[in-house]
């Protein structure tokens, strides 16, 4: 396909909302200063993590710094080297344009009626204020058909979206005319006098002029953007390569939903959480895998799957196996210099979701999240989501607002507490307990309260930062 004769691609910029901020988008992050806590938590002098496990005794990393570290890791992955691709419009939602979209037609393409009513010449309705004029009904002008010329003294029944009859420059809603309803052709119709030219008329090109740039390069293709492309007659668009993601869950105690579950086992929620969290981003999940708490099993999967030809993942997201337990398979394997070019496993000053990890295996980034389901979900929200926005241009950043809390809240010394909550438009209320295993409560949440570190309770009525969820 000749790309030269295609004009398509960009990122929709929204006006800022008062009192709203986005602390975890981190659109511009730089490598840490050598004396910054991020650099001390297992990094080289170049700001890259060095191979090894947790840096014992190091200060916990801030949420902002870790989100930046995740974004930096993604930037170094292989995906930007692939070429842009043309895809059908029906599969383009969530993808990012690789080229601007230029209109080849006006929108609307012809002048049309905004209302069901009578198309008239405004000059034919000139009379004293409050008076009416009598015109003859013409043949109806339905949508999808070319209307006849408006004759002198005529009022043409016109439907919403139908082309305006030549000679007509105003539409009078049918409910303003007498008798009520559309009249047969030739019958008299009483029209309120003094109609203005342009009333209830949509001019051709009012929305977009042919030749204008409609969507800029880097635009995430939302439902609205896809609709604009379709209205311009496009069947396909040129998009940036999708980031191919592999999902890996771990643990002897985890079995797939629907499988036989032993008395000490649980169903795997994390793979579903991660797949859903990635669904709104310009990514393609190329596989979801599970390994038990077995070093050899993980090493085997890395050998087989890290390089899998056309279906190789550009990024792996893992859950579980990264903390201080005796069977932390991800931390143990990826801390081995023979398995990863570099790795770091550390604590972020956040609850839930304190344990975190990053690694690079054969040039492929690994973002390693904790295994409790709520911790996995919160970590994806706080780190993976903003990093994908920073690096790929989508999904859109979450909006954060300051609103009163309906409940007393209990912060943690030295750690930001991320609290599942429900925002009702006037106040935000905590949902469920604070535990990282309480997933059912998270399902009722439409927001996260971001509670800064502290020792004293935050009384009800206090303003708190709230991250709104879709």
TrEMBL record:
Q: Name one GO molecular function term.
A: molybdopterin molybdotransferase activity
Q: What is the catalytic activity of this protein?
A: adenylyl-molybdopterin + molybdate = Mo-molybdopterin + AMP + H(+)
**Any single GO CC term annotated in Swiss-Prot or TrEMBL for this entry:** cytosol
Q: What biological function has been recorded for the protein in this entry?
A: Catalyzes the insertion of molybdate into adenylated molybdopterin with the concomitant release of AMP.
Q: Which InterPro entries match?
A: MoaB/Mog-like_dom_sf, MoaB/Mog_dom, MoeA-like, MoeA_C_domain_IV, MoeA_C_domain_IV_sf, MoeA_linker/N, MoeA_linker/N_sf
Provide the top EC class: transferase
Tell me the pathway: Cofactor biosynthesis; molybdopterin biosynthesis
**What is this enzyme's EC?**
2.10.1.1
Protein family per UniProt: Belongs to the MoeA family.
Names of required cofactors: Mg(2+)
Q: Under which name does UniProt file this protein?
A: Molybdopterin molybdenumtransferase
Q: Which UniProt keywords apply?
A: Magnesium, Metal-binding, Molybdenum, Molybdenum cofactor biosynthesis, Transferase
Against Pfam families, the record matches this protein to: MoCF_biosynth, MoeA_C, MoeA_N
Q: For the region Disordered, give the residue spans.
A: 1-64
Q: Name one GO biological process term.
A: Mo-molybdopterin cofactor biosynthetic process
Looking at the record, the residues that make up the MoaB/Mog domain are: 246-390
């Amino acid at each position: 396909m000749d790309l030269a004769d295609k004009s398509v691609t960009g990122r929709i910029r929204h006006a800022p909302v008062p009192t709203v901020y986005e602390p975890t988008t981190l659109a511009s992050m730089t490598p840490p200063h050598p004396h910054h806590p991020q650099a001390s938590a297992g990094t080289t002098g170049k700001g890259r993590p060095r191979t090894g496990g947790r840096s014992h005794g190091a200060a916990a990393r801030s949420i902002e710094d870790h989100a930046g570290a995740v974004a930096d890791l993604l930037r170094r992955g292989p995906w930007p080297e692939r070429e842009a691709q043309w895809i059908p419009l029906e599969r383009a939602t969530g993808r990012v344009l690789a080229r601007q979209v230029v209109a080849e037609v006006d929108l609307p393409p012809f002048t049309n009626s905004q209302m069901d009513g009578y198309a008239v010449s405004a000059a034919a309705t000139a009379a004293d204020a409050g008076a009416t004029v009598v015109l003859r009904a013409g043949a109806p002008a339905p949508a999808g058909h070319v209307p006849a010329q408006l004759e002198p003294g005529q009022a043409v029944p016109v439907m919403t979206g139908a082309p305006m009859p030549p000679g007509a420059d105003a539409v009078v809603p049918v409910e303003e005319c007498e008798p009520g309803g559309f009249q047969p052709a030739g019958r008299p119709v009483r029209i309120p006098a003094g109609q203005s030219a342009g009333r209830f008329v949509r001019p051709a090109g009012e929305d977009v002029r042919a030749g204008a740039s409609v969507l800029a390069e880097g635009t995430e293709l939302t439902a609205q953007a896809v609709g604009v492309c379709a209205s311009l007659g496009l069947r396909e668009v040129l998009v940036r390569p999708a980031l191919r993601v592999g999902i890996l869950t771990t643990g002897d105690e985890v079995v797939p939903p629907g499988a036989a579950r032993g008395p000490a086992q649980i169903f795997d929620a994390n793979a579903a959480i991660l797949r859903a969290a990635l669904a709104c981003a310009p990514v393609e999940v190329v596989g979801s895998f599970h390994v038990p708490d077995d070093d050899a099993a993980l090493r085997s999967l890395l050998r087989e799957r890290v390089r899998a030809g056309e279906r190789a993942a550009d990024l792996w997201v893992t859950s579980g196996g990264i903390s201080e337990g005796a069977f932390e398979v991800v931390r143990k394997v990826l801390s081995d210099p023979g398995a990863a070019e570099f790795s770091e496993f550390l604590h972020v000053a956040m609850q839930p979701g304190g344990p975190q990890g990053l690694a690079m295996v054969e040039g492929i980034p690994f973002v390693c999240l904790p295994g409790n389901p709520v911790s996995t979900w919160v970590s994806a929200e706080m780190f993976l989501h903003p990093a994908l926005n920073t690096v790929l241009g989508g999904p859109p950043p979450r909006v954060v607002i300051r609103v009163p809390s309906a409940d007393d809240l209990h912060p943690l010394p030295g750690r930001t507490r991320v609290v599942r909550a429900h925002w009702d438009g006037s106040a935000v209320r905590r949902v469920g307990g604070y535990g990282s295993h309480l997933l059912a409560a998270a399902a009722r949440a439409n927001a996260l309260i971001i509670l800064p570190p502290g020792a004293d309770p935050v009384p009800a009525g206090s303003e708190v930062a709230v991250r709104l969820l879709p």
